[in-house]
Fold this sequence. Notes:
With 241 residues, the protein is of the alpha/beta class.
Amino acid sequence: QAWTARILTLFPEMFPGPLGQSLAGKALEKGIWRLETMQIRDFATDKHRTVDDTPFGGGAGMVMRPDVVDAALAAATGDGLGTKGNGPAIYLTPRGRLLKQDLVQELAAGPGVVLLCGRYEGLDERVIEARGLLEVSLGDFVLSGGEPAALALIDACVRLLPGVMGAEATLDEESFDAGLLEYPHYTRPAEWKDKKVPEVLISGHHEKIQSWRQAQSEETTKLRRPDLWDAYLKRGAAGDR
Ligand code: SAM
């Protein structure tokens, strides 16, 4: 069974979108992964197919009804609670756990994901609790809907699936693998706009290149992401590096 992304959305036509192109698109065609969309509106029960209502307690905006979303989730996961062979059921929300590469790796290693894309002000809290949804955020900003977050999460997972990347080796040295940001890259021409490629990279000296890259990674991380740098040092001190 191929890795499967099952998406619950009010805008199924947004998929596969960019995931139909390039590496992810080719892998989709080859059947390395599968994409299924479900229209949440199909689970509304009134004749207007209503999925949202005004918030109790007042305030602006609308809230997605728990009964409608629950029925959609039940259909997507094929059982009551949990998700059996589908991987976790995730609600994309700015309140969630920040999406990081470790979670991406975990999800890519499993059978797939069920992704619930919110709209309006989001979901009624009770359906999040009742379904034990894993809440995941793309970052500290507010999107108008969960769909772009779902596209990003799937893209990050799919490129880790076996057979998706042409050169598997390129996965080995990426940002975050060692807990550091990546070193800078250069290609031809060797001199461009009076800027030369660092000497060491054309030296052909493999070990020197490696240590230059390591030093660059450390420097960039220290400067740009003191949070990652601290975690890196702590891990080193704990001896698990
Ligand atoms: N009222 C919500 C708040 O202040 O947190 C924002 C709702 S937003 C306009 C509508 C939907 O977009 C959310 O239900 C969620 O599914 C999605 N969304 C917005 N920002 C997101 C983010 N940073 N990560 C993941 N999903 C996000």
